[in-house]
Amino acid sequence: MKRYVVKLSCEALQGDKPSGHDPDILKRIAQEISDAASEGAQLAIVVGGGNIIRGARLAAEGGDRVAGDHMGMLGTLINGVAIREALREVGARCTLLSGLPAPTICETYSQRAMLDALDSGN
Fold this sequence. Notes:
Blueprint: E1 3-8, H1 23-38, E2 42-47, H2 55-60, H3 65-89, E3 97-98, E4 107-108, H4 111-119
Parallel strand pairs: 1-2, 3-4
Helix pairs in contact: 1-3
């Protein structure tokens, strides 16, 4: 089995919208990921949160850079939940991992957790 890392541009999730998510785009991406997985590919998906907020932009507008970066990490988690749910809707198995601990939402990232998820078919 081959393993791949897929980097999804967070802006790609919003389609033509000024921010947030486009449900049709999410569904299309999820279906393409599901199709690749059904062909035997093991996929680790990486996404950011820049479509929601960017710390550098907030700092440039007079806000606190660290607070902006924290909000960006939460945006990343929001995008992860959106992708996870889109994948579930098309019948794909998936595990959401985040470096930002959020145990009621997802598992905390570690290399072992990621490898276990891939080995289990998620």
